[in-house]
Amino acid sequence: MATKVLVLGGGSGGLVAANKVKRLLGKEVEVTLVDRNTHHEFMPAYPWVAFGMREPEDIRRPLANLEKRGIQYLQATVEALDPAHNKVKTTAGELAYDYLIVSLGAEAMPSPAPDGHAPWSMAGALRLREALKAFKGGKVVVGVSSPYYPCPPAPYEVAGQVEFALKVKGVRGKSTVEVFHINPAPLAGMGPVISGKVLEILKSKGIAFHGEFEPVAFEGGRVKAKDGRELSYDLLILVPPFAPNRVVRESPLAGPQGFPEVDRMTFRSTRFPNVFVIGDTVNPALMLPPAGVVAHFQGEYVAGVIASDLKGAYIGEPFNPVAMCIMDFGDNALLPQCAFDRVLAGTGMPSCGVMAVGKWVRVTKMLFEGFWFATLIE
């Protein structure tokens, strides 16, 4: 009888994990992926939708395509986890499993700025697109509302892309673009080399950066910081706050802070050995960035661990602790890389550096978009 592997979440980590475990074990496993959405969307391309470089249909594929790969897809919302009895409650009924991979992501909270735009969802990207069409020039401010949010480079990329979009629109001369962040420097956790390079690119585009700017109020077209500083804006782009996923937070997997407790080297639950948690659902608790590339590598790794469990010998691959991110600034791009092996081992900070800078780097992101769909869901 086939082993039942249940994957919760059709984002980066879940999609990779489902494909990998099926490729490794074939008919030995019955793989089911559950997601409330009908489509998988290439999230790094949301800003491209906002700035008119892509249409929604360009960056999404039906999750039902997984059926062609021997993976069952169930459209349902996960309501509760019962790891003590190997069951998951969904809006489509109760599901049993032998192995569970949880990749439900983080939970977006209400934005503290009702007039803010957040192009980190399809709806948010389309809303910003309409706002940019009507924008005739003025003050653009990009910022974050909390230190915890998916894709740490996102606000800097969007600031660069909106600056480029204003150039194309012909209103750059009548506009200013500013970025604020709670941290003292861009991508401070990646070290001074990457921070310095991001600051250099922002400066070259005439974008001002405001560090250690902790927003406490948004009113009347102004954002106020805890230390008294203020920025005025005509167009606000704000990353909303995120919290640990509610379903996981309320489950027996969760620790005191709401994040699941897992082994740092295997992402296996410390309480339930047949449960793995990957991606934004757990990474902040592991001091790993909540980024798609990390979830991608975690998905590959836990699929190998499950295959090894069933085969009785290790047949997977070592976890790849190196994360790369193509930061698209519109008319320039940066490719930073960080190794997180010391972070996972609890022995130090990540080792980071710059792999490449230049307009051509943007092309690699576009090529990867096509590769992603072709290898996972087409």
UniProtKB/TrEMBL annotation:
Residue ranges annotated for the FAD/NAD(P)-binding domain, each copy included? 4-287
Lineage top rank: taxon: Bacteria
Q: Which GO terms describe its molecular function?
A: oxidoreductase activity
Q: What is this protein called?
A: Sulfide dehydrogenase (Flavocytochrome C)
Taxonomically, what lineage is the organism?
A: Bacteria, Thermotogati, Deinococcota, environmental samples
